[in-house]
Design a protein that fits this description.
This protein is of the alpha+beta class and 341 residues long. The protein has eight helices and 13 strands. Helix content is 25%, strand content 18%. It binds 2-oxoglutaric acid (AKG). GO terms for molecular function: 2-oxoglutarate-dependent dioxygenase activity; iron ion binding.
């Protein structure tokens, strides 16, 4: 009794020393000795010794153990598919809220639209945009449409990203498509810039059943391990002011060439409504040609990084706007295009 009181007030007595704490899950995030496939680093799944790290994690981390097959497939192929990750009800609610924004005629939401010129895109208000034009991207809808949040941070995606990030999750660039993008095969590392270039994954959520001929998402399986394309001898990302146009075109051609030389299959994604595909930063992917222009191909892309890796754009934002918002426990969003909420 006295002993219990003593312990309560002053902690454990020497006589009843607690057992050594059980080792928690293995975390490798800050390992200074890690070596990666890319000279620009990566997540633990991108380490040269990822198999050994996985073997250790399997002993200490039940979340990794439960997702072992997915993680192995991600390491090998550069993407995973999570069927039925988002319910139809959630998607319908989100689409109704987006439609209400469109119908209002004065929504704060903005759209990136393709234009001809040195800058190949412009950002304009939703009510001025023709969102059915291929390559139109409705930007960061999560900032104004609350029902986007549980879709983006759905359980399957969150569990998977937490396992590969070893961290909380920061969603920082959302793109809603009504039609196929027809975007050339590219690597996100060229355009979606993070302070750690390969600390990025993206999710692609089907907002409807995708039909063949609608401009399906396509990707070279395993292309996340293509040797780095390096801009101006130093950079993973493309900067149109710094890097010659030929470097950019060269990168796009290189992705087909090297993927084909390596014998990588080019697959097309034909998901059902609610399915999600997650790709790793360097997977070569794009939008295939639209064969039937009457078809929509509604989808929501979200880019993520570990909460400890900042998107590069944060550096250029005015300090009051440099905020990441915790929208679910351990899940954050930020935006380049809108004021804070
Ligand atoms: O959905 C597509 O067609 C391509 C999307 C894409 O490449 C991207 O958002 O990076």
């Amino acid at each position: 009794m006295l002993n219990t009181l003593f312990n309560k007030l002053f902690g454990q007595s020497a006589a009843s020393k607690p057992a050594a704490p059980a080792a928690g899950p293995l975390l490798t995030r800050n390992d200074p000795n890690a070596k990666f496939h890319s000279r620009f680093g990566g997540l633990w799944v991108d380490r040269l010794d990822a198999e050994q790290v996985l073997a250790e994690k399997l002993k200490t981390d039940p979340d990794v153990a439960e997702q072992e097959a997915l993680i192995r497939s991600f390491m090998q192929n550069g993407f995973v598919i999570l069927p039925g990750a988002v319910s139809h009800e959630q998607i319908d609610r989100y689409r109704a809220e987006l439609q209400a924004q469109i119908d209002s005629g004065n929504s704060p939401i903005k759209v990136s639209v393709p234009v001809v010129g040195p800058q190949d895109k412009d950002v304009i208000p939703l009510h001025e945009a023709d969102i059915l034009t291929p390559l139109s991207k409705i930007l960061d809808t999560y900032q104004y449409i609350d029902s986007a949040i549980p879709m983006i941070f759905n359980d399957k995606v969150t569990r998977f990203l937490r396992a590969v990030f070893e961290d909380d999750i920061w969603a920082f660039q959302g793109l809603h498509f009504e039609r196929g993008s027809t975007q050339a095969v590219h690597q996100d590392t060229a355009y979606v810039v993070s302070e750690n270039p390969l600390h990025v994954c993206a999710s692609w959520l089907a907002l409807e059943d995708v039909q063949p001929g609608s401009g399906e998402l396509m990707y070279y399986v395993g292309s996340h391990r293509n040797p780095d394309w390096v801009y101006s001898e130093k950079y993973k990302h493309y900067n149109h002011e710094r890097d010659a146009h030929e470097q950019h075109m060269g990168h796009l051609e290189y992705l087909h060439k090297v993927s084909q030389e390596r014998g990588l299959p080019l697959e097309h994604f034909l998901p059902k409504k609610g399915d999600v595909l997650i790709w790793s930063a360097d997977l070569a992917h794009g939008g295939s040609q639209i064969v039937d222009p009457s078809l929509t191909r509604r989808s929501l892309v979200t880019h993520f990084s570990p909460a400890s890796s900042e998107p590069y754009y944060m550096r250029f934002k005015n300090p009051q706007e440099r905020q990441k918002r915790e929208v679910v426990p351990g899940g954050f969003t930020s935006t380049l295009y809108y004021p804070n909420r």
